[in-house]
Amino acid sequence: MDFQPSLRSDELKGRLVEFDDAVVRPAEPVYRQQRADSGDPHFPPPVMEDLKAEARTRGLWNLFLPDGDQGAKLSNLDYAPLCEVMGSSPLLSEATNCAAPDTGNMEILAQFGTPLQQEQWLHPLLEGEIRSCFAMTEPWVASSDATNISSRIERDGDDYVISGHKWFTSGALDPRCKVAVFMGVTDPHADPHRRQSMILVPMDAPGVTVVRGLPVFGHSEGGGHGETLWENVRVPKENLLGEEGGGFAIAQARLGPGRIHHCMRAIGLAERALDLMCMRAQTRVAFGKPLADQGVVRERIAESRIQIEEARLLTLKTAWMMDTVGKKAAQTEIAAIKVIAARVATDVIDRAIQLFGGAGVTDDWPLAAMYAHARTLHLVDGPDEVHMRQIARRELGKYAHLRPAGF
Ligand SMILES: Cc1cc2nc3c(=O)[nH]c(=O)nc-3n(C[C@H](O)[C@H](O)[C@H](O)COP(=O)(O)OP(=O)(O)OC[C@H]3O[C@@H](n4cnc5c(N)ncnc54)[C@H](O)[C@@H]3O)c2cc1C
To answer: Which residues of the chain have pLDDT under 50?
Structure first.
């Protein structure tokens, strides 16, 4: 195994950290103030456009894209350390046009989109002119099992007609969100993994309604998580992404690199929490000595460092495997990092909150918001249990010959 990032990755990381320290973090209060002044929790603060312009000038743009003229063409292993930096800074991903769900959507548009679809949607996304959302999860079925998805995409002449009810369509409340990648059933009689397709739906198409934003732990800022209704939405047949019945395959293709991005960001989040924990422990005095001198505090700091290192190494191993032997051979690792990165982030942030006392649960420090985000990582992109199930299935498969007949 060789996890050494290339010189280019190191160099980009250095520039990303410099951009974050000098430009992005100082803009955080401006960003919050502009949104507060607008009175709209989903208002996109204009300072973000300044940050994006500066990122482009510095050559820190579309770093996620592995192919094509507009991306940085980094391997997973080289992009991973950049994601970690992005995870520790709330505005950095969007400022560099590397934010979810756009990154996953751009990847599948680059891979499966027709020239027309790319012209219409991929190029403005790559330019940072519009944003997008991904509509798969539905309120009335257990969506961790994607074969349950029941929304319909039905062919009618030269069009497809879309009907369904979705929720947790992240980003749908952002006024810049212009297109959805929608997943629905095209053939209910096909094999369960060939029933679904993906289609591109303009958010201003008649019949698309964003009913409300779903608050997460009471928070609803930013692009929001939309509950969305799709009532007889008609789009040209050319909007189908890939082939009919190819929805699952596209969803799988979207998963691998996206998983590395998510996990390294979660590790960046955990690093920031540990950073805050250590600073607080050294400066806060109780019972005659700094908190840092209490054995229990030291143990929690040590435990956090160990967990972060474990999670980072496993994620880098996964990135390295994806680059060298491919996604299929890395399936167990891809599932494992999803579980471990969310667990480490919530564990470390939880310890940091405890160390901060009451301040930890206020908005005076970023820990409460970080915790809310980390907690959702146990659910998004499939709940932990589903990934554990896959890992266990592969492990048990090695012993299938020992199973008694009839079971
Ligand atoms: C903040 C946030 C953002 C999201 N963004 C998006 C988005 O942009 N687009 C989108 O389409 N979706 C999005 N989601 C939805 C997310 O992907 C789903 O919530 C997730 O896949 C689980 O589906 P579900 O909520 O229907 O849970 P269910 O399928 O109802 O599962 C509920 C629980 O059942 C248990 N469970 C399920 N299967 C098993 C099993 N095999 N073994 C044991 N236990 C099991 C788990 O504990 C699971 O949490 C988002 C969710 C959140 C919270």
So the answer is: none
> Ligand 1 within 6 A of 385 CB?
yes
Buried/exposed code over 49-66 (b: 16+ C-beta within 10 A; e: otherwise): eebbebbbeeebbbbbbb
Q: For residues 241 and 181, is the Cβ–Cβ distance under 8 A?
A: yes
Closest ligand 1 atom number to CA of residue 166: 11
Write out the two tokens for 365.
């420090």
Q: At what angle do helices 102-112 and 247-283 cross, to 10 degrees?
A: 150
Strand 177-185, strand 131-135: pairing: parallel
Q: Judging by beta carbons within 10 Å of its beta carbon (0-12, 13-18, 19+), is residue 1 exposed, middle or buried?
A: exposed
Give the angle 334-337-342 at the CA atoms, nearest 5°.
135
Is the distance from the beta carbon of residue 136 to the nearest atom of ligand 1 less than 6 Å?
yes
pLDDT digits (tens, 9 = 90+) for 339-389: 999 999 999 999 999 999 999 999 999 999 999 999 999 999 899 999 999
The residue whose CA is least distant from atom 52 of ligand 1 is: 380
Q: Give the Cα-Cα-Cα angle 221, 225, 228 (nearest 5 degrees).
A: 135
Exposed / middle / buried, residue 287 (Cβ in 10 Å: 0-12, 13-18, 19+): exposed
pTM of the model: 0.94
φ, ψ at 341 (rounded to 5°):
-65, -40
At 14, is the secondary structure helix, strand, or coil?
Answer: helix
Burial letters 193-203, b for 16+ CB under 10 A, else e: ebbbbbbbbeb
| Closest by Cα among 199, 174, 41, 23 to 96 | 23
Distance, CA 225 to ligand 1 centroid (Å)? 13
> Alpha helix locations (H) across 42-88?
47-57, 76-87
